[in-house]
Amino acid sequence: MAACRRVPRLLLLMSIFLYVHPIREDKYQINGVAKPPVSVVIPAQNPGGAPAAVNGAPVLAALPLRRRTSGWKLAEEGACREDLTRLCPKHSWNNNLAVLECLQDRKEETEIAADCNHLLWNYKLNLTTDPKFESVAVEVCKTTITDDVHSQGEVIACLEKGLVREAEEQPGAHAIGANCKKAIMRVAELSSDDFHLDRYLYFSCREDRERFCENTPAGEGRVYKCLFNHKFEEAMSEKCRDALTTRQKLIAQDYKVSYSLAKACKTDLRKYRCSADTNMPRAREARLSYLLLCLESAVHRGRTVSGECQGEMLDYRRMLMEDFSLSPEIVLHCRGEIEAHCSGLHRKGRTLHCLMRVGRGDLGAIDNLCQKALQTLIQEADPGADYRIDRALNEACESVIQTACKHIRNGDPMILSCLMEHLYTDKMVEDCEHRLLELQYFIARDWKLDPILYKKCQGDASRLCHTHGWNETSEMMPPGAIFSCLYRHAYRTEEQGRRLSRDCKVEVQRILHQRALDVKLDPELQRRCMTDLGKWCSEKAESGQELDCLQDHLEDLVSECKDVVGNLTELESEDIQIETLLMRACEPVIQSYCHEVADNQIDTGDLMECLVQNKHQKEMNDKCAVGVTHFQLVQIKDFRFSYKFKMACKEDVLKLCPNIKKKVDVVLCLSTTVRNDTLQDMKEQRVSVKCRKQLRVEELEMSEDIRLEPELYDSCKQDIGRLCQNVAFGNAQVTSLVRQKRLVIECLKENKKQLTQRCHHKVFKLQEVEMMDSELDYQLMRVCKPMIRRFCTEADAKNMLQCLKQNKNSELMDPKCKQMITKRQITQNTDYRLNPVLRKSCKADIPKFCQSILNKATGDSELEGQVVSCLKLKYADQRLSPDCEDQIRVILQESALDYRLDPQLQLHCTDEISRLCPEEAAAQEQTGQVEECLKVNLLKIKVEGCKKEVLNILKESKADIFVDPVLHTACALDIKHHCAAIPPGRGRQMSCLMEALQDKRVRLQPECKKRLQDRIDMWSYAAKVAPAEGFSDLAMQVMTSPSKNYILAMIGLGVCVLFLFGLLCGRITKRVMQEQKNR
Which positions make up the signal peptide (predicted)? Predict the structure, then answer.
């Protein structure tokens, strides 16, 4: 250190000296001692115009300078006079340094005489080697140099290192005055075109130059660039590497220290006014970072920057990424992080990537100033524009690029996007994955660092988000704020106001797809959810699954994290392709069933809807099924998470279901409104058409998995474990996974009587909804899908069960579907509320005739078919309205064929059927044989409740022969021959057959005659066992009696006799005078 302090001032001080004192040709006063004049060294000329070298040393020739009493001036030399007169203003001729600067700058634009060029080169060489200037260095930089100094370039080298130490605020660094700094930088600049002029670097790197740059000609900074490119080679000597690093650090402080960069970019700097800010200190605008940011801004704005300049910029951007020490802010502010985590990784950008990894939070906390310095460096180097700038990334990902991204031009910005698309795939290697995520973490925090995004969205960002220029930043703007603004506008509707341009929107979606791969790529999400990520997802979530974890714990998150997760979930509902991992898992299903939707999807949520509809397909693998179900489970937490539902029903929700947030509650609220409006025959539905359409989709989705109905699932968890444990979540094949989950609901329905009260109530409510809309009955629609295609293609989906019931007895009906239809019929007959057609048709009859039953019932209990039985009896009495009568007739006909469709009969006669009719009950096909058996064995029935039900059946059969399938089958030909003109219903055809039975002229079929006689005996017994309970029953018995005409004639005769008696016998009461009445 002491030696350095003795040596380092020559070059700097010479410049200062030239500013202050012109060089005298007769003598130099140094410390009061007169010295001989300086001899100018003229090197031999090589073909490139630069001095030739022999064995690394310049060929020197002594050329004495002319003496003038007024002092030696460059302007007086004949070799340069013509060029000086032509190129430099006259007022600068008295200052040798001003002349040197003028000619140095202008020789890039115009040709300068060879002799003048040689003179200038020798003059600069003298400045860097002559020890007589040490006294000037001591004088000007006396606060820095405290010891004796000696030369051969070490003075300048030491001054340069002192300047670097001060910039990095290293311990023991000396403060250097402004004039001294300017002189140091100016001397470094003067030596920038030929490395021979930097004597310290020249002697330090002579062997390395021969090793690495033997064929590189001197001049125009070419040797410097060659050595820079080999700086981290193993064969590079440490002394040369240190000298090169010092030189690079000076370039970082003043770009003019790089001759090639200053020359290549001079025109562009002037063109884009990169040095025109008079309010900015000269030291700042001369920094390499300022030049890079200014010119990169022009490039990103689509301006033209020369290819030569861009090439130089690329080299120095790569240089910044390779060696973190060239950025004094990182050296200063990241010292602790480097010592703790990144020591020993200096070369090839490894230290920088290590710091970036610390910045991601993978290796511990990072200081805010260090984080900011890293972000600034990434902006300066701009590796997003060309991945090759990041050497560590380039080397780690070379194999991936060659295989997965070979179709993209080398150096194209889309290479990074291609790498992101293959993250977490088989083609990605671990080292590349780490380097890529480390870089993308910082790119994600400044939208400008993605050049494609910036190019497509700069106009939208300026218009909608009030952004600054590319190289301008706002301390008030949090990381990621501009991109958040862009994606909020990207998913706006036309009604909501200004939207992004199409090209910008595509890029925003691309970035969202990438960010879904890693939660740390979303600055806002990471910042607001850091605590919750550590609490809920630190050990449970795999890479790329953090957002899914946060969505699963949405109710448990802190408010600010909950808001940002909710916003992202809303975006996913609109464009599920943001979920890149899910899209990869579902690729087979998408290609087979949803490719058109995926290709054409524009913010409508159709793709997820398609995946849900095809969850049962064989192409659906486990990962895709789990991912789709997860998203469905997340959607039920808030109706806003279903984009199509939200857009279709937001006005209806505000009007009809205010203050309801959970999707399942909103769906229930709206569907209840629709159902009530339908039952009440409202002229105008309160729920809009578009909402009703989307409501159906949501109801269908919720019906396919019990977990999508959280209240039902939570209410029945205990019952599922007790009754359906072998069905709920068994080890079935993946293709039937969804079906098994749905079978849980079917299991609960079949064991409804054994359910807890809470679960029973929920299952009943579910059945009520499904009966209202058959399409929501997932199991029915699945089992009967082929039959629906065969019989019900034109039927309304809501009335699918009704259509299937009408075709139930067709020979073409599939047995499994027929069995499922029977199950649903049994369910409907247990409670009139489960039969919407009956409920609508009998809405006036039910409260009129069955109010006592309704009064006894509670809202949570089923009526076990009591209301239906009540209506059956009134049907027998012929007191129902026509619509209700038609529906009851259908129920009677169906239940007459299958006793299981009569809940009251099954409830009261189960034991009797097992005792008296076991063979009939065991028959696979029910054709009314069980009811016939009970009728025949009526006298043997011991259970009074069962006997009453059989008597009711007999009573009902008198009202319509269709209610008695055995009798109807036996008498079908006789009805056709003798009663064809008589309409069915109200016992008319039965009366016709009875009259035919009594008419000896009519010959009935033996089987029909026998069955009719049996019915007469049964009715007679029924009349004895169950006499009429009132006048209505008595009238009904008369009207359905075979002797109806005789009975009615006798009643009429009695009335006539009573009337005649009154006419003949006069009044029985005493006559009263009129006057007495009017008193």
Answer: 1-22
